[in-house]
């Protein structure tokens, strides 16, 4: 790769919201920097970004001082501003987190304290006050988080791509990476094209660990895909805004919740079941190589042994609509199985360590002339602007040292 052989200064793999935010941040921080983004799909945001609840998270759930807490709180405010600036559909709706059982009350009070530590305004509610927000929702107590909102994250991703000025190449599936620490990286795509960059950024989401290994770096984790299944509510008038259960702190999943989206539809879900492929959006999608790689990772078995009871409940709700309905009725008693209309599923790219630990924070690592984003599930869409700036800072630092 001679001096004149570089196609760009920074080469980003992955055209989800994190990859596109990184491109946007690089060109904002260092105008004139040439950025190319390779995305294997025919458009942006086809996976985690475009298959979530569309919620702008407040940051209340996350450990104070963690990247998730800092970036979600900052990112929520920035996302609202970004949407307003570019005319992207959004709303700051607030949300209820509802305790339906006495055992959940201490965790609910813990969320109040955590929210205050993270600088988030929280209002505690009794049943009568809850009814002012959500007449059909039942619970023992709740908290109202005013900074939560909703938006169209796919539109945000498209705007980031356009505003970045980067060269966005769709249909560019990466099959090989040749990185030479003193010279940068050359990437071969399925159509035979070769793209050369001085610095490589890995924002490949569901495939980020595979890309790290293609580059020659040991990521020290594996992506274990969890499918989240959703329904739409046939009677959307039952829910006015956003309603969440009190989450189990042992898991990074928030539980089945109710979300009135920017389109006015109410989405219910997700649950969390193992996916049989990285992009396994249904039980019928099985990719033996990917499934085999998951089963070969010791951490996957350790998760299964440690959390089999939780997993069995999630599996039951996946296979039984009445069981899923029962979970929803804890929050919304009026709902019936006929009210639940199947909707598109999503897959969460969850990083798991060898010992079975679920990585609970954003994970960004560096190699020679390389930056890897190795764990960026929810609330990464909310936090995408701060994440993009952090990845851009590291990429530009590598570029300066190149």
Fold and architecture overview:
The protein has 402 residues and is an alpha+beta fold. Helix content is 32%, strand content 26%. It has eleven helices and 22 strands. The chain has helices at residues 17-29, 67-86, 105-117, 127-133, 153-164, 208-215, 288-296, 298-306, 308-319, 321-329, 384-400, and strands at 8-13, 35-39, 55-56, 90-92, 95-99, 122-125, 141-145, 149-151, 167-170, 174-180, 184-189, 194-202, 222-228, 231-233, 242-245, 257-260, 266-269, 273-274, 340-342, 346-352, 363-367, 370-375. Strands 1, 2, 9, 10, 11, 12, 21 and 22 form an eight-stranded mixed beta sheet that branches. An eight-stranded mixed beta sheet has the order 6-7-5-15-16-17-14-19, sandwiched between helices. A three-stranded antiparallel beta sheet has the order 3-8-4, with helices on one face. A hairpin with a 5-residue loop joins β16 (257-260) and β17. α2 packs across α11 and α9 packs across α10 (321-329). The longest helix is centred in the first third of the chain and has 20 residues, at 67-86. It is globular, with a radius of gyration of 21 Å. The two termini are 13 Å apart. The model has no long low-confidence stretch (mean pLDDT 95).
Give a short synopsis of this structure.
With 402 residues, this protein is α+β, with helices and mostly antiparallel strands. Helix 1 packs across helix 11 and helix 9 packs across helix 10.
